[in-house]
């Protein structure tokens, strides 16, 4: 991050390589639309490049700062889409199978995706940040602006709900 602040634009490419998957998954967990998540991914890194020198505080968690930008952009896009086209029309994107040929794996992934969509947006975001992006609960607390204890509680609640739904086949 310091290289980017010092004017090395190639550093943005390295940061993108490290963070793009996490940013995309975070945006997708909020928007539930792969194309919109890709747009947020690109917009996030445009903002990182444009604002690193003026808004990033040295010696702080760069991943948390970038995730917070992605989160804010995603919620802004979510609100705009909900207002303009309705929530149901906005969330109907994506390929549940991920291109897998194994029918059992496809069904299991579809069931997990359905169960994840039944979580609140806040719970879905916390589970995504912890399980897929490997953020620690205290880092997630910083990103979502909630106490670490609340994040841990929401995470445990969401995991219990997912487990119950998967066991019941809901």
Molecular structure report:
It is a single chain. Helices cover about 80% and strands about 0% of the residues. The protein is an all-alpha fold and about 170 residues long. The protein is built from nine helices and no strands. Helix 2 crosses helix 3 (about 35-55), helix 4 (about 60-85) packs across helix 8 and helix 6 crosses helix 9 (about 150-170). The protein has two domains: about 1-95, Rna Polymerase Sigma Factor, Chain: A; about 95-170, Arc Repressor Mutant, subunit A.
**Percentage of residues in helical conformation:** over 70%
End-to-end distance: 43 Å
In CATH terms, the superfamily of the largest domain is: RNA polymerase sigma factor, region 2, helix turn helix motif
Order of helices and strands: HHHHHHHHH
Contiguous runs where pLDDT drops below 50 for at least 5 residues = 84-101
- How many extended strands? 0
Mean pLDDT: 82
- What's the tally of helices? 9
Overall geometry comes to: globular
Q: What's the CATH topology label of the largest domain?
A: Rna Polymerase Sigma Factor, Chain: A
What Rg, in angstroms, do the CA atoms define?
A: 17 Å
Structural class: mainly alpha
- What is the number of domains? 2
């Amino acid at each position: 991050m310091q290289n980017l602040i010092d004017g090395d634009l190639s550093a943005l490419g390295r940061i993108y390589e490290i963070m793009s998957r996490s940013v995309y998954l975070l945006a997708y967990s909020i928007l539930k639309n792969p194309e919109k998540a890709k747009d947020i991914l690109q917009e996030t890194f445009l903002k990182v490049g444009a604002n690193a020198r003026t808004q990033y505080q040295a010696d702080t968690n760069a991943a948390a700062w970038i995730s917070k930008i992605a989160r804010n952009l995603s919620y802004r896009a979510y609100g705009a889409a909900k207002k303009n086209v309705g929530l149901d029309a906005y969330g109907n994107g994506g390929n549940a199978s991920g291109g897998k040929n194994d029918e059992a794996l496809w069904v299991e992934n579809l069931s997990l995706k359905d169960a994840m969509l039944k979580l609140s947006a806040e719970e879905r975001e916390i589970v995504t940040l912890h399980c897929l992006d490997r953020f620690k609960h205290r880092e997630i607390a910083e990103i979502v602006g909630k106490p670490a204890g609340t994040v841990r509680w929401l995470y445990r609640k969401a995991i219990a709900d997912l487990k119950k739904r998967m066991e019941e086949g809901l």
